[in-house]
């Protein structure tokens, strides 16, 4: 879908950044296939939701139906409906938050900032170099701009002007 071009370009940049962090700090990152306790049912920007819906539509029909049924049964505070036997069924197409999860992220809180990451990662590490940290606010600002541009070009049936969707709502979109 042409209107997803900016989002896909952003994903490529995010993947480049996260691959660099993961490679440089592999000894301190324990995330692996089947490590899914952080995979929760999250909300997404519309552009991310439509990208997931498009990816779902490219799956074999039986797999897509299975995931749509999981989406219908998903709860707001439950596990991600994309989890299938501890793995993401749309891993290659996962949203940005999933691509950065577990890595050190710079979070703004009130007047200060802190670095957050999975407690299983970076154990016994006293300091982190700046290139190991994802600037979450900057990334979210770029994603918001990409989403705003996307919304001006495209409006999915069933979104009713929403700017955020749950993963389950995204999986039920018709694209």
UniProtKB/TrEMBL annotation:
Family annotation (InterPro entries): Puta_zinc/iron-chelating_dom
Highest taxon of source: Bacteria
A Pfam match: CxxCxxCC
Protein name per its UniProtKB record: Iron-sulfur cluster-binding oxidoreductase, UPF0153 superfamily, putative
Source species: Geotalea daltonii (strain DSM 22248 / JCM 15807 / FRC-32)
């Amino acid at each position: 879908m042409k209107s997803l071009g900016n989002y896909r370009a952003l994903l490529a940049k995010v993947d480049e950044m996260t691959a660099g962090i993961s490679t440089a700090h592999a000894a301190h990152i324990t995330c692996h296939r089947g490590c899914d306790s952080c995979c929760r049912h999250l909300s997404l920007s519309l552009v991310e939701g439509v990208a997931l819906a498009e990816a779902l539509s490219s799956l074999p029909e039986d797999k897509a139906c299975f995931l749509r049924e999981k989406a219908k049964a998903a709860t707001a505070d439950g596990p991600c409906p994309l989890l299938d036997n501890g793995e993401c069924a749309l891993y290659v197409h996962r949203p940005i938050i999933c691509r950065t999860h577990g890595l050190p992220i710079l979070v703004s809180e009130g007047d200060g900032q802190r670095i957050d990451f999975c407690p299983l990662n970076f154990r016994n590490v006293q300091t982190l170099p700046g290139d190991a940290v994802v600037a979450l606010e900057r990334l979210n600002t770029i994603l918001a701009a990409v989403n705003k541009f996307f919304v001006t070009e495209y409006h999915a049936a069933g979104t009713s002007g929403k700017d955020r969707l749950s993963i389950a709502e995204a999986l039920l979109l018709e694209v």
